[in-house]
Amino acid sequence: MKYKYRHFNEFIYHVFLILFGVIMLYPLIWMFFSALKPNVEIFKNISLIPQTWTFENYISGWQGISGVTYGRFFANSFLIVFLQ
Question: pLDDT per position in the chain (84 positions), as tens?
């Protein structure tokens, strides 16, 4: 009896652990798939998988802010790391 009770407790523990892991990873999964949606589809379509796949968000993200590209941000970060 004690053996079955122990396995049941381990099973319940793993179910909650997997459920908690999925809950923790869902925002990252949503962010990844939302980055592949057009801007108008992000909040209109509640589906996780995009109806229209696009890489425009990544392209505009790499173009940067105010004329400073994302590559410049990486270069500055590497410069700070290597100078320390």
Answer: 566 778 888 999 999 999 999 999 999 999 999 999 998 888 888 888 888 899 988 888 888 888 888 889 889 999 999 998
Partners of 65 in the β-ladder: 68
Q: Which residues share a beta bridge with 14?
A: none
> How many Å apart are CA 70 and CA 76, to the nearest integer?
10
Measured between alpha carbons, how far is 14 from 32 in angstroms, rounded to an integer? 26
**Secondary structure in 3-state letters for the chain:** CHHHHHHHHHHHHHHHHHHHHHHHHHHHHHHHHHHCCCCCHHHHCCCCCCCCCCCHHHHHHHHCECCECHHHHHHHHHHHHHHC
Domain boundary assignment for the chain: 2-83
pTM of the model: 0.65
